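The records we work with from here on pair a chain with its fold. Taken together, the tokens spell out the fold as the letters spell out the chain. To see the layout at work, look at the sequence and tokens printed below.
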Amino acid sequence: MRILITNDDGINAPGLEVLREIAAELAGPQGEVWTVAPAFEQSGVGHCISYAHPTMLAELGPRRFAAEGSPADCVLAALHDIMVDTPPDLVLSGVNRGNNAGENAMYSGTIGGAMEAALQGLPAIALSQYLGAQTAGLDDPFECARKHGAQTVRRLLDLGDWTADDDFRLFYNVNFPPCPADAVRGLRVAPQGRRGGTRFGMKPFVAPNGRRYLWISGGAQDAEATPGSDVAANLAQYISVTPMRADLTCHASLAGLAKALDEG
């Protein structure tokens, strides 16, 4: 198996090394693991692509490249340049430092990389490590993802189903819970949820030179979330798997809206 890995934390992020280990186990001794990741951290860029300017590439070693762009740029660079003659069988994005469950999924560059791979017609999985009080004291905060990552991906691969109920291709969002690896209670398929009262905001900051800046601020990641959701599963020490697709349509509203507005 030939696997492409990327992330949004950057080419030197520890989570990417965890993902490389997971990919190497899945690919096997006869397989290949290719890395194309952002040269610098790209957290929060979502599915952004560098449409208005070029992306510079640097080859750092065998099958290892850094791109000055987003995770989606990295996938495009791999598929249409670096690996154009030997495309991957699977794209893995992560392992993100911090969860991409709940509302975080809307901002995630990790998910953006997997989404772009799916739009390009490839099987893709985003993987993130939820952090919290139980992981803070671990020697390896990625312990849970490192131990359970390959098995979780393998179970999804064994399903062999990457089609949705329309023209969009499925991809999967996997979040590993904020607990030690041996405390994981299992795996739960769950929809994307939302934490109550948790939103991103802005906080002002005055620099030493007197200039005023604004910093993005986040909310509590352990806030109570939608029952049965990915966040709820993670906080209950389950690995969450959420099937996703690149379609923001609110299908539940289509019929009513069409009845009210359609003409002719």
